Amino acid sequence: xxxxxxxxxxxxxxxxxxxxxxxxRETVERIYFNVPYYRxxxxxxxxxxxxxxxxxxxxxxxxxxxxxxxDNYPFSMFAVPMSEIVRVHASSGTTGKPTVVGYxxxxxxxxxxxxxxxxxSAGANRNDFIQIAYGYGLFTGGLGLxxxxxxxxxxxxxxxxxxxxxxxQLMHDFGTTVIACTPxxxxxxxxAIEESGIRREDLKLRVGxxxxxxxxxxxxxxIEEKLSIIAIDIYGLSEIIGPGVAFECHAQNGLHINExxxxxxxxxPETLQVLPEGSPGELVFTTITKEGLPLIRYRTRDLTRLNxxxxxxxxxxxxMEKCLGRSDDMLIIRGVNLFPSQIESVLLEMxxxxxxxxxxVDRVNNLDSLELKVEVEEExxxxxxxxxxxxxxxxxxxxxxxxxxxxxxxxVEPKTIERSEGKSKRVIDNRKY
Length: 433
Ligand code: DLL
Known about the structure:
The chain is an alpha/beta fold.
């Protein structure tokens, strides 16, 4: 398999640490002199630029949160004059103000570089047709993949999200080999292909690059089977750069972090202490090459762990485990902690069930209630009522023993749960806090 940037992707640990220390010093200087918010925070902590000499000093620096970005809305955290900014993106901001991010010309070039690594690692090259079904616009998915695709010389199809019938038609007519979208949209596309009457062998699809939302190993298997492709996980967040923060290789055993640009730490989200190598916890990033919006110890809320072993693909870039939950995604139901991914894992083991489900949480008479609505495979939906009832009991019992939580299970007809064209919403929490 090709490697896009062998120098950095296969660098030894000492070389990487030296590079990171040098870039961290430059970044701290940049934010101290250019971002009043950071200068104040550092002064409050009794720190100056000279206090940070190497990555070992990182934990002296304060954390940054999404709230800090909101408080400085829209541009006050930028470290360069607006005349240097060539692009802005923003998060959708379902709660409160959106978070706005800005890129200089060099930042765009860094982004293209890390996306070129991502696509090369997925097995794409100049001979590929990449259909980009992530949304274009303020969301970073579409344009992030776009620049990476052009950089490796592939033929980019900037179709954006939605318009599923057209997606399938062009996939067939153009001979798309690589599809880029959210994993939930990949499932939707698989259904649409089946319905279109186009035979799988008439498509040239071989790789999918999926991310922007959590998806379990069982979901991966489901997608790989339905689309007959290899499904590669890609991770990123707008605040750090967008997609391109970390990517899988064909070993599918952890996502390589582009750590020559984004320095990771794992902390305990409660005590905020840095955890020893290999411990699970919250992922924190410091950008060490970004110019427009450098961020120091940004708390992602994503939960994972790091693996520093060399990978069978030859890369030495540290790997993060597939990220299956966020600390703020965790539901607390009658005192029991539950991640939606736990439910997904169990459901997708059952052949009678389709991978389309929604969890509804409510509070009735001061007691939390949990309901799962899940679609049944067509052939099982034709079954007698008594068989459907026993299927429902089986799902409930399996989930109860896996999660320790009582819940109501409602089986619904195929294709009744709303399909998503971008990030899926699998939890509806109606509780008033
Ligand atoms: O979702 C960037 C992106 C676009 C990544 C396309 C991959 C592909 P945001 O909208 O800022 O940016 O959302 C970032 O999405 O903190 C995670 O909680 C979640 N997320 C992103 N990728 C993954 C993944 C883009 N592969 C937030 N697995 C992050 C699990 C993911 N969660």
